[in-house]
Design goal:
Elements lengths: L2 E5 L7 E8 L7 E12 L9 E4 L28 E10 L5 H18 L7 E8 L9 H6 L7 E5 L10 E10 L9 E3 L12
Amino acid sequence: MLLLSSHRRFGAKGSIFALIAPQKKHPGRERRVTLPLYVRQPNPGGAGPARLTRGTRRAPPAPPNYAEPSRAHEVRNEEHDVAVRAVRGAVQLERDEAGHMDERVGELLSAVLERNGLTPDDLISIWFTATPDLHSDFPAAAARKIGIVDVPLICAQELDITGAMPRVVRILAHVESDLPKSSVSHVYLGAAGALRKDIAQ
């Protein structure tokens, strides 16, 4: 004879039922078989007797497919790949005056763009340095006045080296360009050409 026994294993959510069957070889002993698929659930609202419902087993998540290689390395610029180049430049001011600085720095930036076939959209960022004897304005202000408005700019003070050329503004511009490194034009205007005779053009 089979007996149905209730064992509470899920608290208020329900109970798992088990079948109790006598052992054939040992009539005095019983064998307990757990049936985890049938669960006694209380009725909504607590009214009426409990009901038997068929339990469900969730399928384990599918293991990752390591046989298929990642395609992340295949992501490319939809337009075309371009290189990042660094362009140097410098200009010497005749006097420490804000208007004069705007004029000379604007001339330097325009020459860098023109000689390298660039537009403001090709600019990534520009670093400006000024010698310690320049106090009238930020060199980066000249860039904003000629239309370079959405490019990160930063200013810093050049090292105060004894005997160095006075009143000089230097730039380091990072740009997107198809030009090879050997074809990049570094622009040193006027007397500043003496600073880097190896690359000044």
